[in-house]
Amino acid sequence: MNQSRSCGRLRIMLGHLGQRWAGAAVAHPTSGAVSPNSFQTPQFQYTRDNNVLSLEQRQFYEENGYLVIKNLVSDADIKRFRNEFERICKGEVKPEQMTIMRDVTIAKSEYAPSERTVSKVQSFQEDEELFRYCTLPEVLKYVECFTGPNIMAMHTMLINKPPDSGKKTSRHPLHQDLHYFPFRPSNDIVCAWTAMEHVDRNNGCLCVLPGTHKGYLKPHGYPKWEGGVNIMFHGIQDYDENSPRVHLVMEKGDTVFFHPLLIHGSGWNRTQGYRKVISCHFASADCHYIDVKGTSQEITEREVVGVGNKIYGIPKDTSLKDVFRFRGRLVKGERTNL
Ligand SMILES: CC(C)CC(=O)SCCNC(=O)CCNC(=O)[C@H](O)C(C)(C)COP(=O)(O)OP(=O)(O)OC[C@H]1O[C@@H](n2cnc3c(N)ncnc32)[C@H](O)[C@@H]1OP(=O)(O)O
Ligand SMILES: Nc1ncnc2c1ncn2[C@@H]1O[C@H](COP(=O)(O)OP(=O)(O)OP(=O)(O)O)[C@@H](O)[C@H]1O
Ligand SMILES: O=C(O)CCC(=O)C(=O)O
Ligand SMILES: [Fe+2]
Ligand SMILES: [Mg+2]
Hints:
The chain is an alpha+beta fold. It is built from eight helices and 16 strands.
């Protein structure tokens, strides 16, 4: 904690040098006084000093932009999330602010809501049972390595990827999550994504392009897929087709932490099962909001606010920042900025 706080002070002191250099300076807290001459190639830009990550784990995240922790969330907790998801699908509980999404192939059909028609629930922060996920100490322990001690849960999802209808609409195109977020800096944001069952390429596991977190936010748009594409599933238009892809095979309870600039997506579900994961995007409460008008993220603001207007009647001139300010919930420390 003290290190993180001194990290904050250093950042202010060294503001003009930029955050990367400040990160380098605190990467060697025992190396004595910080003098400009002691700056070297920054060793750690994406992780913070504490005793949670091993050196190997830290280096892996720095290099690749993600880190899988095996067996982090207990079977008992996952069972509780499953039960609550079933209750939501049956309409037994209707958490405020939560949206229920159906696959685009059945979006306009009349099916009664059930586990077979719900492909994703989003913004479950008012559902105390599902929101427990965002407060689990074993999860937050890792989150803090990326965000520091003041932690906000900014975006929550339970994704129930359905068996593909044959149109491959169950795919999630390659994208960067930062495209959806009106706050910065990106290095103080991390996603925790927990497999609720075994996931591999057959049921559409997460697919990542290692190291892409070192790049910038790219423009996103709808992929031109013949079979259709789900609303708000924007993808990157120009990515390097030859960039190596890694499919993350994970067991129930395994959790991947990844950077919001990491390019990732998920393939189609060729099984008859509904592939379930639960996830939360966390950010340091010390982050600041940005105005996305005039940027490539305008498309997100337009769609999110458009949907909010249709479903909840929020004013059409609401900003993306206001949406997140309203949704975000503190899970640890102090709500300083966000
Ligand atoms: C990092 C992270 C942030 C990444 C992402 O966010 S990825 C994108 C995730 N986004 C979402 O999941 C969107 C959240 N979902 C929602 O807001 C809702 O589920 C809605 C899609 C608006 C559906 O709300 P609902 O109350 O069911 O309203 P309706 O059934 O009346 O539908 C409203 C209009 O939307 C259409 N729709 C619903 N689901 C989909 C779909 N999957 N793909 C394409 N279009 C869809 C639906 O046909 C209807 O269209 P119209 O009849 O108005 O033309
Ligand atoms: N044409 C495409 N444009 C953009 N993204 C794609 C395209 N095809 C696949 N992807 C995405 O690439 C990632 C990796 O998918 P992957 O190749 O594992 O599965 P798939 O393309 O659905 O199936 P297949 O195993 O048949 O290639 C996923 O995010 C998927 O949505
Ligand atoms: O299919 C998945 O679980 C990945 C979803 C995803 O990347 C997202 O919703 O941002
Ligand atoms: Fe994503
Ligand atoms: Mg493919």
